[in-house]
Specification:
The chain contains 2 helices and 2 strands; from the N terminus they run ααββ. The protein is α+β, with helices and mostly antiparallel strands. The protein has one domain. It has a two-stranded antiparallel ribbon. The longest helix is centred in the middle third of the chain and has 56 residues.
Length: about 100
């Protein structure tokens, strides 16, 4: 097996090079490409997972801001309940401090 630095920048091949060395070079290059592909796929998966976590965090912050906004507008105690899958929004209100 050839070292990785030789696979990334292979030496020029001449017609006198043996079939075995050529096979080793191409096989090694395939393994290198596959290894880099796996690393890229793992990086993409990690970024996707982080993106999902960040979206959940942003949704939570949006819910808090929405609740705060309702509270400030109506001067009522409002609790926002998370949306059920494919459901509609629901809010629960307590008693208002001031009647409109």
């Amino acid at each position: 097996m050839l070292p990785i630095h030789r696979l990334r920048d292979p030496p020029p091949m001449s017609s006198s090079d043996g079939t075995k060395e050529l096979w080793c070079l191409t096989h090694g290059m395939r393994r290198l490409v596959l290894a880099e592909f796996v690393l890229d796929a793992q990086t993409i998966q990690d970024l996707t997972d982080k993106n999902t976590a960040l979206r959940r965090n942003m949704d939570s912050i949006d819910d808090q801001l929405y609740s705060h906004n309702l509270h400030m507008r109506r001067e009522c105690e409002v609790r926002v309940v998370s949306l059920p899958p494919r459901g509609s929004a629901r809010t629960r209100q307590g008693t208002c401090r001031h009647s409109p």
